[in-house]
Amino acid sequence: MREPPREVALLLNKNAFAVRPDDGDRIATLCTEAGLTVVDIVVPQSAEAMANAAARLAGEVEGLLVVGGDGALNSALAGCLGTETALGMLPRGTVNVWAREIGLPSQPERAIRALTAGTTRRVDVGRIEWPEADERSHFVLMAGLGFDGEVTRLVNRRLKRFVGFGAYVVASLAAYMRHEPYAARIEVDGAVHELELTQLVVANARRYGGNLPLAASADLADGLLDLWTLGPASKWQHAARFARIVASGSDPGDRLLPVRARSLRVSAVHEVAVQLDGDPAPPHPGPIVLSVLPGALRAWLPRR
């Protein structure tokens, strides 16, 4: 672990649920009052622009603070991999799972104070690849293959901007009516499993969908990915299952695969919807390969 950065750049997602028009200047002032030197404020216009800005700034500044939600953090992720620049977040998104995972307060003033008194630590990052399409991406929280991938594809972005989590509720109902399980051949660290799935969550962190510790034993720095599976069932059984998960705050899953893995390859009979850190991944043909990159990211964290 290291002391927290003192020189930072802000990457502000203007489309995040809780971001206000004056947040750039306001948060820069809060950072300065907390003893941080703000060297740049960038307001990218797209996820691609966020990634490019992070890549440009990584290595030039001690820390990057993403002002937004988990999707914006994911966009900045690739640019910081393998660098000494610490990536942090000021939670202004819809769900802010990363902030909940690391114990970061939701209010900007308290979050900045917590980070200023915090630390940096090397954490693992998940990598996802579609070899036939020669495409890859990354995640720091989780990848979801199946039902939740369909949910994120169906979320109305404009509705999400104005009503927040309610947009996911509407999309979940739509996905619930149309989703069907998928048959897949899954290789987990070389061992082959043939099965049908409704949902596969490949988790680097414990929390999912808000504050649910779905992968309760996951560790950000153990060099492993935790696997949570949900098999086929009738729609009313799945509805009851999801209600129990929300009510109890946990669920061990169906344990159709080993609990942990370093890598896995998913070959499904048809294209499977994928979400990465709560946002939809573009559809690509062919098998999906997931693996862990141990210690690939220097994360900016509050002290616990």
Verbal overview:
α2 packs across α3 and α6 (147-154) crosses α8 (166-178). Helix content is 30%, strand content 32%. It has 2 domains: 7-117, Rossmann fold; 125-293, Tumour Suppressor Smad4 (Sandwich). The strands form 3 sheets. The protein has a 6-stranded antiparallel sheet with strand order 6-5-16-13-8-9. It is of the alpha+beta class and 304 residues long.
Question: Helices, strands, pairings?
Answer:
Blueprint: E1 7-12, H1 23-33, E2 37-42, H2 47-57, E3 63-68, H3 70-80, E4 86-91, H4 97-102, H5 108-116, E5 119-130, E6 135-139, E7 142-146, H6 147-154, H7 157-163, H8 166-178, E8 182-188, E9 191-197, E10 199-203, E11 225-230, H9 235-248, E12 260-261, E13 263-268, E14 274-276, E15 279-280, E16 288-301
Parallel strand pairs: 1-2, 1-3, 3-4
Antiparallel strand pairs: 5-6, 5-16, 7-10, 7-14, 8-9, 8-13, 10-11, 11-12, 13-16, 14-15
Helix pairs in contact: 2-3, 6-8
